[in-house]
Amino acid sequence: MPKSVIHTDNAPQAIGTYSQAIKSGRTVYLSGQIPLVPDSMEMVSDDFEAQAKQVFENVKAVCEAAGGGTHDLCKVNIYLIDLSNFAKVNEIMSQYFEQPYPARAAVGVRELPKGAQIEIDGVMELPE
């Protein structure tokens, strides 16, 4: 099955050897998004809540560029440098998702690129 690159200027540009997302059939694999503001490629803020909102906005932009939305995400992985922020992630995530919610993992990590406090990647299944 051929694969195609998903790209949007509404999400941060790749800062390495990867694509924002890859589509294979109806499945879209989203690369990890950190809280960079797409226009400036700078961190949105040092505030965790602002970072989490920016990451969800970046994920949303990639989903839309692929022809879907956050409601089409089947699985998300959330990486946090401080798991005490998990409740705040749930609160913010509820602004971007409705039931049925995607499957999810939340993983505590030591550090993330560019000093980010949160990163999210995911897998999306586009409607026929």
Folded structure, characterized:
With 128 residues, the chain is of the alpha+beta class. Helices cover 20% and strands 32% of the residues. It has two helices and eight strands. The strands form two sheets. A six-stranded mixed sheet has the order 1-2-3-8-6-7, covered by helices on one side. Strands 4-5 form a two-stranded antiparallel sheet. It is globular. The model has no long low-confidence stretch (mean pLDDT 97).
Could you give a short description of this structure?
The protein has 128 residues and is α+β, with helices and mostly antiparallel strands. The protein has helices spanning 48-65, 86-93, and strands at 3-6, 21-24, 27-33, 36-37, 42-43, 73-80, 103-108, 118-125.
Rounded to an integer in angstroms, the radius of gyration calculated over CA atoms is: 14 Å
Order of strands across the main sheet: 1-2-3-8-6-7
Q: In which range does the helix fraction lie?
A: 10-25%
Number of helices: 2
What order do the SSEs take from the amino end to the carboxyl end, as H and E?
EEEEEHEHEE
Q: How many strands in all?
A: 8
Give the mean pLDDT.
Answer: 97
Question: What is the makeup of the main sheet?
Answer: 6 strands, mixed
Instruction: Give the N-terminus to C-terminus distance in angstroms.
Output: 16 Å
Low-confidence stretches: none
Report the principal-axis shape.
Answer: globular
Which structural class do the helices and strands define? alpha+beta
